[in-house]
Amino acid sequence: xxxxxxxxxxxxxxxxxxxxxxxxxxxxxxxxxxxxxxxxxxxxxxxxxxxxxxxxxxxxxxxxxxxxxxxxxxxxxxxxxxxxxxxxxxxxxxxxxxxxxxxxxxxxxxxxxxxxxxxxxxxxxxxxxxxxxxxxxxxxxxxxxxxxxxxxxxxxxxxxxxxxxxxxxxxxxxxxxxxxxxxxxxxxxxxxxxxxxxxxxxxxxxxxxxxxxxxxxxxxxxxxxxxxxxxxxxxxxxxxxxxxxxxxxxxxxxxxxxxxxxxxxxxxxxxxxxxxxxxxxxxxxxxxxxxxxxxxxxxxxxxxxxxxxxxxxxxxxxxxxxxxxxxxxxxxxxxxxxxxx
Length: 341
Description:
Dehydroquinate synthase-like, alpha domain, six-stranded parallel sheet, two-stranded antiparallel ribbon, 16 helices
């Protein structure tokens, strides 16, 4: 078995699988969720041992949540979107319980990545190395989420477009602390090719799209474990982190990342039309007006980005080459929106 195959999380995609598993765990479950996803199952599953309302992923808050878990648990269950799934990872690490992940939307890859994301003073940080005993994707639950949230699952796939460019650039310039890996690059290219082929299904949020999004996110997560995350994370994520730091706001992750991919691909000179075509074809809502990112905020983030990346010691990328003034930043922001809409 290869390192990649070994890193693929156990995955079940089946109608009714989520409620069946929650029923099996019953009073031994520590469920990390939010009101909306819990409402989808509350009438048909037993009350869990302990319920944690996810939301803030500030480190101090997560520590308080984990400290409150009573004894007697069998497994920590993440039920919901990224915040619930990352909270479940943190609580599972703190308590030593098994981890079961049940994403009810496919807007990000949190169910299939080993680290959890958290905030420390509103700065993005990653920690842990959590491997779930099972990830369950129940199409009956996923279909009930707003379609735009599932289309947002495009973001952490589309980021391969800009992430691989930044990685290749850093290696070419001798700034790459992570050597180029042909297997990781082949995975990134496959993700983008399959994304283009699946775009009409993703727009419809069909059952085929739900299954594909689950399986491809599992592959990306396995790639991150086996090869490192450089093939799917670069300057597009850095711009998103910078925006979150500047505003102390949060967005639907995949929608924000999709917009950032188009912006950064323009600055990379890296087929921005291809990135924008995928955004439009899949229907992910990356319009900055929808995201409430006005031109002044976008420009401010671009001008702040080099300093932010330096302070946070983020991976080398095209950012170190940027020499933007206000006028050029505005041109890029306007052009990105023209491509998207």
